[in-house]
Amino acid sequence: MALTPSPSQTSGPLWGFALMFEGSDRAVDPSSPGAVTIRGRVLDGDGLPVAWPDALVEVWDSDQFARTRTDTEGWYSVVVAKPPAGVTRDGRALAPALNLAIFARGLLKQLVTRIYFPDEGEANAADPILDRVPEDARDKLVARPDGDGLRFDVILQGDGETAFFDF
Amino acid sequence: MRTPELTDVNPPYLFPAYESTVKRAPHRQVVVLPRGWFHHMPGPVFGRIPLRPNDNDLTRQHAGRPLGERILLNGRVVDSDGRGVPRVLVEIWQANASGRYVDSADPAFMPLDPNFTGAGRAITDNDGRFTFRTIKPAPYPGEVGSFYRPSHIHVSLFGPVLSSRLITQCYFEGDPLIAHDAIAQSIPDQKALERLLLRLNPELCEPGGIDSAIAYDWTIVLRGANATPMEV
C-alpha cells in the first residue's frame, strides 16, 4: 500500500530572504553561447500583475535551473540555455522546451507550464505534449521573439489563460 | 502494478476561504499527460544553490542567541514505498519567536530578533534524513479579517525527478489554530494534512542546559520519487 504523499501548501509572499541568492535568475552565463533571456509578465484573472513580493518563478529542465521573482509590475526575467530536443520514456520525440513553475501567495500548489521555442515550428507541430493542449492555448506556449530575447507571459486565469499541466 | 501517483492529496487551486486564490486559480482544467512524458525526467540541477555546512543550524547564524523555544527538527524524506530518498535539497524559512519574518515584505506587526534570520538549507543523507536546529516560530496575524496562522515552517524540496518538486509547510501537532487555518484546511484529506504535522519525540529531546531543545519528527513523502523504468 503506497504511502499518502505530502500535500502542497502555498509559498506565501515572505520567501525572498530565504530562497533567492546571487545569480539565481541565471541558469547559464549570459555571455555563453546559446544563452537566451526569457522575460514576461504574470497576470491574474483581472489582468492585474502578480507583483512583488508574491510570485516565485522557476524555469528548469533536467539540466538547468533558474529562480527569480516578479517585480512590482509583474515582470520576471531569466537567462537560460535553449535545451536540446527530448524523448519520452515510451520513445516519442519532444520539441525543445523548458518547464516554468510559479509558486505564489494564493497558489496552494504550483502552476506548471512549458516554454517552447519559436524557431522550432516543425518540432513543435509534432510535439505530443503540445498536441494535448487545447488548440486555442497552444500558440501561447511558444515564446515569441522580443528584442534580443524571448517573451513568455503567464496568465493565471480568464481571457488568454495559459495552459497548465497536471503536476 | 503501482499507481501511487493517482492519489491527488493536494489542495484545489480555488479555495475561497483563502481569498487570494479567487483571482489566481485557473478556470480551465489542467492538461493531464501520461506520467512517463516529462514528470519522471531527472529533477532540476540545483547545484548552484549555495549550501554551507552550518546552514541547518538556524540558532547559530548570529553572534548572540535567538529568542524562543529551541527545537530540533529530525526529518526524513521517503518515497511512496517508504524508502529514504538521498540527495534531496531541503530549504526552510520561517518567522521568529514573535511571529516576524526578516523578509522586507513582512508587514512588521511584530519585532525582529537581531539574532535570528529564519532561513536554512540541508541535503538528505543516504537514508533520506536531514536535521534542522531552529526555534519554534510564533503564530502571527494574517491579512485583515483573517485569523492568526498556526506556527509553521515553510519547506521547499527538490526530489530526484521533475514531479517531486514540492513547496509545503509543516505545523505542530496539537496546535488548535490548525483547525481554523484556511491554508491548512484547504487540504481535502485529513490523512494528507497529518503528513504536515511535526510530532514530538520525547526520546530525542535534549533536556537541561542552555542549548536544550524539543525534538520533533517529520516524515515527508515525495510523489514520483520511486519512479522506475517500469512506470510509464
CATH evolutionary superfamily of chain B: Aromatic compound dioxygenase
Question: How many domains comprise the coordinates of chain A?
Answer: 1
Gap between N and C termini of chain B: 11 Å
CATH architecture type of chain A: Sandwich
What is the CATH class designation of chain A?
Answer: Mainly Beta
Radius of gyration of chain A: 16 Å
What low-confidence regions of chain B span 5 or more consecutive residues with pLDDT below 50?
1-6, 227-232
Average pLDDT of chain B, to the nearest integer? 90
Number of domains as seen in the coordinates of chain B: 1
Give an account of the 3D structure:
The complex is a heterodimer of chains A (167) and B (232). Chain A is 11% helix and 32% strand. Chain A is mainly beta and 167 residues long. Chain A contains 4 helices and 11 strands, in the order H-E-E-E-E-E-E-E-E-H-H-H-E-E-E. In chain A, strands 1, 4, 9, 10 and 11 form a 5-stranded mixed beta sheet that branches. Chain A has a 4-stranded antiparallel beta sheet with strand order 3-2-7-8, with no helix packed on it. Chain A has helices spanning 16-19, 121-125, 128-132, 135-138; strands at 35-43, 55-60, 65-69, 75-81, 86-87, 93-94, 97-104, 111-116, 144-146, 149-151, 154-155. With 232 residues, chain B is mainly beta. Chain B has a single domain (10-221), classed as Aromatic compound dioxygenase (Protocatechuate 3,4-Dioxygenase, subunit A, Sandwich). Chain B contains 2 helices and 10 strands; from the N terminus they run E-E-E-E-E-E-E-E-H-H-E-E. Chain B has helices at residues 182-185, 190-194, and strands at 70-78, 89-94, 119-123, 129-135, 140-141, 148-149, 152-158, 166-172, 197-200, 214-221. Chain B is globular. The N and C termini of chain B lie close together (11 Å). The model of chain B is unreliable at 1-6 and 227-232 (pLDDT under 50). The chains are: A mainly beta (167), B mainly beta (232). The interface between A and B is large, with 68 and 82 residues.
